[in-house]
Specification:
heterodimer, A: Pectate Lyase C-like, 14-stranded parallel β-sheet, 13-stranded parallel β-sheet, 39 strands, 10% helix, B: mainly alpha
Chain lengths: 411, 255
């Protein structure tokens, strides 16, 4: 009996160890990917050699590896979803996926992952798809070093670069997205990390969080998007060391924070954005050690924000450093460096002895009456601002940095 | 006209004031671009120069010059020369000397440091503003024969265009905040050459994005070729009308 068991064990383990390699290509045993997929079993590797494959919708429903050699092209003919992954433990590597179909009902993608865990998508090129990579109901997926290019003209006719829906523990690393609706879109995605991505020239947002909690994004670059990052209805998002450049235009933002709480922004750089950070209904968020330079507005903080701390930031050469829409301020400003601060420091502790009021009268006027932007850079505005600085009467009394720094922070 | 024009020019050159004006413009123009770390800041400095200094100097200098040459004008009138010629020569003499000063002082640094469409626009607007305020100054000297009153009027007019008009605009903005007043405001700005010039230049700068909805409405109007032509036409009208009125008055004036 014991020997039979051991033999059985050996036999089964032997089966498990036999992983086949199947080659697809014009000079190889399989001519089409679909033919090869039919012969695969869990653990096999399909090598796809250079060539153009127009096979409609390719469904991967076993735990296999698709490995592109010399970047084969999978083309959806503008009709089909190209690759549908419906199994866990799938790896997709080295492919070029292009021309997926367009449909607003079932959202076809270049690569779409359904209900799977530990799917790895590495080093692919996604070109002119409706959605680039689409992940739904999946966990522990790794999406790394992919290049996504789309040619969206308007929001309705193009999908997102990487779209994640009801997922958990994703890693999105080192990708680049261009010309999509949102570069990366998160809805109901928790415990995930976004790291070292380059997100440029997208129509709507570079990165978009909806109802997603406990996520983090680090060291990404967001340039020339409609808005760099939009974080909405989410909690506990960490945002560190990102760069926001030239998100410039009417209603463009570096970061748009709406109805969020307990977030942490640190070490980000904002340069040449219309409004670097827009905070609306934001609670218990810490904004520290960020650099704001050459923005239209550094920080637009609405009166419905509460218990936020804005400390140790550099504000340089912004048209308006901060603005708000009401008289109530329940947030704390401290230890920031303001280039417009003109106070002195008698006891040489590098903290100005005179508190600084970062809110200019003109920014309050413009917030209440946007048409007043008409008077931008006119003499009367300069005079009004100067007189308000000396005798504050109209700006909120408590909008004040009690401890402004004398010198630029080294960040 | 040629000879009188030449005398006026020579006289202004001897005056040294225009020399000092040129020198100050050169100083501000060059330091604006070389001391600031970005050319955008330099452009904003020059924008302030065009909107404040240039009109003030143009209107004051022209008025004072004409009051001071009252005897010269009387002498000319006693000769068989048409009054129109005398007045035109004075206008062109003043205008061309001040415009030359502006081009040397601010135009050259603008051409060197700023991008072509913007630099040409700013130089063009600077020239127009000089012309407009010389023309307004000549109207002031006709309105009041008394020097003190006339110069006082020029100063009041400068304050009005540079400051008070914007104050009135701001007041109206608040009074009519509940109404869609963006489009009427576009029309209102046409009533002040300085506001019109400021908005024309601002729309060419990339700061226009922060002007939001209002900026968009302005861009819709002034950003187009037609809008540009209309607004430049308005500025030219601002230069021509006060002078034309002063000319018709001067022709009939009992000196």
């Amino acid at each position: 009996m014991k020997w039979i068991l051991i033999t059985l064990l050996l036999l089964t383990s032997k089966y498990a160890l036999i992983a086949k390699s199947l080659h697809v290509g014009s000079n190889h045993s399989f001519k089409t990917i679909k033919a090869a997929l039919e012969k695969t079993e869990n653990g096999d590797t399909v090598y796809i050699h250079k060539g153009l494959y127009k096979e409609g919708n390719i469904i991967v429903n076993k735990s296999i590896t698709l490995f592109g050699i010399d970047r084969p092209i999978l083309d959806g003919d503008k009709k089909y979803e190209v690759l549908s992954v419906k199994s866990s433990y799938v790896t997709i590597r080295g492919l070029r996926v292009q021309h997926s179909g367009y449909a607003s009902l079932d959202d076809p993608g270049g690569i779409k992952v359904y209900d799977a865990t530990r799917v790895t998508i590495i080093d692919n090129e996604l070109y002119d798809n409706f959605f680039g990579i689409y992940i739904q109901f999946s966990t522990h997926c790794l999406i790394k070093n992919n290049k996504i290019v789309a040619f969206g003209k308007e929001e309705q006719t193009i999908g997102n670069g990487i779209h994640c829906w009801k997922s958990d523990s994703l890693q999105i690393i080192g990708n680049s997205m261009k010309g999509c609706r949102d570069g990366i879109y998160f809805e109901f995605v928790n415990n995930s990390v976004i790291w070292r991505n380059t997100v440029t020239d997208n129509i709507r947002y570079g990165l978009h969080f909806m109802n997603s909690n406990n996520d983090a994004y680090f060291t990404n670059i967001f340039s020339r998007n409609g808005a760099g990052v939009a974080v909405m209805f989410s909690k506990k998002i960490t945002m560190m060391n990102n760069t926001f450049n030239e998100n410039w235009g009417d209603a463009a933002y570096g970061i748009l924070l709406k109805e969020i709480s307990d977030c942490h922004l640190s070490g980000n750089t904002f340069n040449k954005n219309t409004a670097a950070i827009f905070m609306d209904g934001c609670n218990r968020t810490i904004v520290e050690k960020n650099a704001f330079s050459n923005n239209g507005w550094g920080l637009k903080i609405q009166a419905n924000c509460m218990d936020n701390t804005i400390q140790s930031n550099n504000f340089l050469k912004n048209t308006f450093d901060v603005s708000t829409n009401g008289t109530l301020l329940l947030n704390k400003f401290q230890y920031n460096y303001w280039d417009k601060y003109t106070g002195y420091d008698l006891n040489k502790d590098k903290i100005g002895d005179v508190p600084y009021r970062p809110l200019s009268l003109y920014s309050v006027i413009v917030e209440n009456n946007p048409t007043a932007m008409l008077l931008y850079r006119s003499l009367i505005v300069t005079l009004l601002d100067q007189s308000e600085k000396k005798i504050p009467s109209l700006t909120p009394e408590n909008f004040i940095d009690e401890k402004p720094l004398m010198n630029l922070l080294k960040l | 006209m040629g000879r009188i024009f030449k005398y006026v020019m020579l006289d202004i050159m001897k005056n040294k004031f225009v020399m000092i004006y040129t020198f100050i413009l050169v100083l501000i123009g060059w330091s604006a671009f070389t001391l600031e770390d970005s050319s955008a800041k330099g452009i904003l400095t020059l924008l302030n120069l065009i909107l404040l200094t240039v009109p003030l100097v143009s209107i004051l200098f022209s008025a004072i010059y004409i009051y001071n040459s009252a005897e010269f004008i009387e002498l000319l009138i006693s000769h068989p020369i048409k009054r129109k010629k005398i007045w035109l020569s004075l206008f062109w003499g003043l205008n061309s000397s001040l415009v030359t000063a502006f081009i040397i002082g601010a135009g050259i640094p603008l051409l060197i440091f700023a991008e072509p469409p913007l630099s040409f626009l700013m130089i063009g607007i600077g020239i127009l503003i000089t012309t407009i305020f010389v023309s307004i100054a000549m109207l002031c000297t006709i309105v009041y024969k008394d020097k003190a009153k006339g110069i006082g009027l020029t100063i009041v007019l400068w304050i009005y265009f540079a400051l008070l008009f914007d104050g009135i605009l701001l007041f109206l903005l608040f009074q009519f905040a509940d109404y869609p007043i963006e489009q009427p405001m576009v029309l209102m700005t046409a009533l002040s050459p300085l506001d019109l010039s400021r908005i024309l230049i601002l729309l060419q700068l990339d700061t226009s994005a922060i002007m939001g909805y209002t900026g968009a409405i302005f861009k819709d109007f002034f950003g187009t070729t037609i809008g540009m032509v209309v607004s430049l036409g308005l500025l030219i009208l601002w230069g021509v009308l006060p002078f034309a009125y002063s000319l018709s008055k001067f022709k009939k004036k009992d000196l």
